[in-house]
Amino acid sequence: MKVGVTGSTGFLGRRFVEMAAARGHRLVCLNRPNGRAPVASDSVEIMLGDITDAASLREFVRSVDVVVHMAAWVGNGSPADYHKVNVCGTRNICQTIADHRPDCLLIYCSSVAVLRRYRLWPWFNTLYTRSKARAEEHVRRYQAERCLRASYVYPGLMYGPRDERFVPTLLKYLKRGQLFNVSGGERWAPLVYVDDVCDLILYVVSERQAVGRRYIGVGKQEVGIHDFFRILARRIDVEEPQRKLPKYLLLPVAAFLEWSYRFLGRKQLPALSRRVVDLLSIDFDPNLVRRFNREEWSARTSLHEGLNRTFEWLRLAGGP
């Protein structure tokens, strides 16, 4: 199988390329001209292009059997940044496949944030969540109108070696004593070890029965997010978070602060943002996971095992 990958230089993308190459797939990684280099391997071909430039995608799409679309804007940014990359970039991928390689399978990597977004109070959704949901609408439209072959993977909160965002950021705030709990995060955190998400995507790449299906990439959901904070605190021997604040009082405050920052022209997010509140209060119904995944796939890595590997990498990298 020849697999095209967008977002191959990110946390998930790099590990996916390594695992896919190890399982015998040939890979074509779409790389921006000034982007970081993907994983070096005899099985990996680099092709210059950008998902925001539709013309640059033609040769990429024509050369592969499957496109695993992981590229996304995930950091701080304006609404225009999220829309350009996440929405327009995904639409460009769909359009190019439909026009130039209609038998190609698209595996769209979304997020559990899309499945748990606020429908009655949409203004509480983060820019990231709104953009990923809008991008998914484009994939579905191309499925319906252009017979696009597409499958969906919704990764949870990923951690593991080379994680430079999630666990390191939590450790930083734990050491400062600035992490607190938000009501709602007592059960069923959608944590997942990065190798398990890659394993799920590779399952979708290889199995005919996965075409057109949706899968949720989360781990065994052994703890709530508050318990996860306590586990991390014990790992680095600092005080565990004690305060718990009400979610539905914090969300309006966070939304107002974000609006104020944009009004003042500030590029960074405030310390209290909708994204922060959402993370500190996250839980995810395991019944939904079972309904999506059926008996076809489940994560293999326990939280204990995954954290041991993560902290070993942090130690070698000079972290906590």
The average pLDDT value, as a whole number, equals 94
Count the strands? Answer: 11
Number of domains: 1
Structural class label? alpha/beta
Note the gap between the termini.
40 Å
Name of the CATH homologous superfamily: NAD(P)-binding Rossmann-like Domain
Oligomer class: single chain
Q: Helix tally?
A: 12
What fraction of residues sit in β-strands?
5-15%
Tell me the series of helices and strands, N- to C-terminal.
EHEEHEHEHHEEHEEHEHEHHHH
Under CATH at level 1, the class stands as: Alpha Beta
Largest sheet: 7 strands, parallel
State the CATH architecture.
3-Layer(aba) Sandwich
CATH topology: Rossmann fold
Q: Stretches where pLDDT falls below 50 for ≥5 residues?
A: none
Q: How are the strands ordered across the major sheet?
A: 3-2-1-4-5-6-10
Q: Over all CA atoms, what is the radius of gyration? A: 19 Å
Any idea what the shape is? Answer: globular
> What percent of the residues sit in helical stretches (DSSP H or I)?
40-55%
Could you please describe the fold and organization of this structure?
With 320 residues, the chain is α/β, with parallel strands linked by helices. The protein has one domain: NAD(P)-binding Rossmann-like Domain (Rossmann fold). The chain is 45% helix and 14% strand. It has a seven-stranded parallel sheet, sandwiched between helices. The relative contact order is 0.12. The mean pLDDT is 94.
Helix and strand topology:
Blueprint: E1 2-6, H1 11-22, E2 26-31, E3 44-48, H2 58-62, E4 66-69, H3 79-100, E5 105-109, H4 112-115, H5 127-146, E6 149-155, E7 157-159, H6 166-176, E8 181-182, E9 191-193, H7 194-206, E10 214-217, H8 225-235, E11 244-245, H9 247-263, H10 274-280, H11 286-293, H12 303-316
Parallel strand pairs: 1-2, 1-4, 2-3, 4-5, 5-6, 6-10, 7-9, 8-11
